Amino acid sequence: MNGERSSGDPTTQTERARAYYRALDGDDYELLEQVLTADFVHTRPDRTISGRDRFVRFMRDERPIAETTHPIDAVYTTSDRDEVAVRGRLLDPEGDTITAFVDVITFEGNNISKIQTFADR
Fold this sequence. Notes:
single chain; alpha+beta
């Protein structure tokens, strides 16, 4: 992006961020592919996953706990409109909190190009 900010629509980006979590929780891997760029990168405390195809494969086939949910507590937007931050919780199948998290989601246009996860555990 050569130091320039994306010019994506903040409403659409917030909707895309929410769609990302719906895709994870609903095992909707087609939707997950649609909201991510091909060169998507997810950085979290325990690993970094590079590439949309690799990330979707991980979520579909390799998650340590597959039946989790991600209730969203808040979504914050930035004035330059290339990032949103999502505060939420990762719940196990019984509804118990595994961790609280903040995901900083970066966009290229209206698709997610990067997520950096900060977690309390």
